[in-house]
């Protein structure tokens, strides 16, 4: 069932995870996307999910399938969103790409960079678009922050980055959630929350890879060996440095601080903004201590950015626009997003290796 030029991209969703409901809503909100199908290992579960997301969007329910294979075999499905446990990403992302479906893959993208390389290779050889689910990268605030960091008269040269991404998990989460199960999401807090912190550091550094990664001492693991809390420092040859901390054991935080030779930037709600329709950050440029160090010459300025759509809908919209271009024959898949994902995965792998080596420094 071929789509006519300019028609919305028809999505299928593999799995009924909580995050899938958020992205299903985003698909409904995006003007160039349509939710066509959802698959689960249980047909009743798929039907219940389809009914729930249709009711929430006041839309017709998508087709419900009792397997992931049926979603991939549906000729009307042009793209898939894959929110499955990380251990299943390699198999299902490859299967989707081999069926000619564009792949929007939830983060963390893979358990290791070699798995991700296989996914990216198959996407490239089949001419389909790849993107991971780092929603915050698509918010208008992120573009506005980039403008500030790129202004040499305001920010200057990048020197230091700090990032945290944490939340206090309850006992049920720590016992039963897939993110603490070694056979499903063995990266634990490093993959789930550390992906944000590492991704933010790379973004702030304009995706220049550091020279070294060193895990911070005393990472915390559960009895199955899955990371519940960890951090690391990164260093570049030109003297830049960065740290991140991710944890299932600390109060909620999603902070990013970026410091340059002339200014600084702070965000306290990076990955999930406090509000859907508006997000802000603070910037300071050219500040110094006042006489006798009794105060500062200027205080941080709040920069507020309106959001025409929630950030997850902006992600879907951008992904669907790229997929439409490929489908309608006027562009090739955009490699940028695979490159961003691969660099993030490289640093996740380096931190994991450093932890396994007793927090020794790992060269990149």
Summary?
With 364 residues, this protein is α/β, with parallel strands linked by helices.
Question: How would you characterize the overall build of this protein?
Answer:
With 364 residues, the protein is α/β, with parallel strands linked by helices. The chain folds into two domains: 9-135 and 312-334, 3-Layer(aba) Sandwich (Rossmann fold); 137-310 and 345-363, Dihydrodipicolinate Reductase, domain 2, CATH 3.30.360. It is 35% helix and 26% strand. The protein has eleven helices and 16 strands. The protein has helices at 18-29, 43-57, 68-73, 89-98, 113-125, 140-149, 171-176, 188-192, 194-204, 311-327, 336-356; strands spanning 9-14, 33-39, 63-65, 79-82, 102-105, 130-132, 158-168, 212-215, 220-221, 227-235, 241-247, 249-260, 263-267, 278-285, 301-306, 361-363. The strands form two sheets. Strands 7, 8, 9, 10, 11, 12, 13, 14, 15 and 16 form a ten-stranded mixed beta sheet that branches. It has a six-stranded parallel beta sheet with strand order 3-2-1-4-5-6, sandwiched between helices. Strand 12 (249-260) and strand 13 form a beta hairpin. Helix 1 packs across helix 10 (311-327), helix 4 packs parallel to helix 5 (113-125) and helix 5 packs antiparallel against helix 11 (336-356). The longest helix is centred in the last third of the chain and has 21 residues, at 336-356. The N and C termini lie far apart (46 Å). 47% of the residues are buried. The model has no long low-confidence stretch (mean pLDDT 97).
């Amino acid at each position: 069932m071929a789509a006519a030029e300019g028609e919305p991209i028809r999505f299928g969703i593999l799995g009924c995870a909580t995050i899938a409901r958020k992205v299903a809503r985003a698909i409904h909100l995006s003007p160039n996307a349509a939710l066509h199908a959802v698959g689960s290992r249980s047909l009743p579960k798929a039907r219940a999910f389809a009914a729930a997301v249709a009711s929430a969007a006041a839309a017709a329910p998508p087709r419900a399938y009792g397997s992931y294979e049926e979603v991939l075999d549906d000729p009307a499905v042009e793209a898939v969103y894959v929110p499955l446990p990380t251990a299943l990403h390699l198999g299902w992302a490859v299967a989707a790409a081999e069926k000619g479906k564009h792949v929007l893959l939830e983060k963390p993208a893979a358990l290791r960079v070699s798995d991700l390389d296989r996914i990216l290779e198959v996407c490239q050889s089949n001419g389909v678009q790849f993107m991971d689910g780092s929603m915050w990268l698509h918010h208008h605030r992120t573009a506005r922050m980039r403008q500030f960091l790129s202004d040499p008269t305001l920010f200057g040269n990048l020197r230091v980055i700090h990032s945290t991404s944490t939340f206090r998990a309850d006992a049920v989460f720590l016992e039963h959630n897939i993110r603490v199960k070694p056979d499903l999401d063995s990266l634990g807090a490093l993959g789930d929350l550390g992906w944000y912190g590492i991704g933010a550091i790379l973004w702030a550094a304009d995706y220049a890879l550091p020279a070294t990664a060193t895990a911070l001492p005393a990472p915390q693991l559960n009895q199955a060996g899955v990371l519940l809390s960890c951090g690391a420092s990164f260093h570049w040859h030109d003297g830049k440095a960065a740290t991140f901390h991710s944890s299932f054991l600390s109060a909620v935080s999603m902070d990013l601080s970026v410091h340059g030779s002339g200014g600084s930037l702070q965000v306290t709600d990076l990955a999930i903004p406090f509000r859907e329709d508006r997000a802000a950050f603070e910037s300071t440029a050219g500040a110094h201590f006042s006489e006798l160090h009794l105060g500062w010459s200027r205080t941080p300025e709040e920069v507020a950015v309106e959001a025409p759509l929630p950030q997850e809908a902006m992600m879907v919209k951008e992904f669907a626009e790229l997929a439409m271009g490929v489908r309608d024959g006027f562009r090739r898949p955009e490699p940028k997003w695979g490159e961003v994902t691969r660099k993030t995965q490289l640093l996740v792998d380096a931190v994991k290796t450093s932890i396994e080596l007793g927090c020794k420094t790992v060269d990149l």
